[in-house]
Amino acid sequence: MPDEPERIYWDACVFLDYIEAAPQWMPTLDALLEQASETDDLVIFTSSVSITEVAFAKAEKDGKALDPKIEAEIDALWNDRSAVKLVEFNEIIARGARALLRRAIELGRPLKPMDAIHLATAQNRSVAEFHTTDEQLKKHWHDLGFQVRDPFTQKPKLFPT
Question: What is the CATH number of domain 6-88+127-149?
Answer without folding.
Answer: 3.40.50
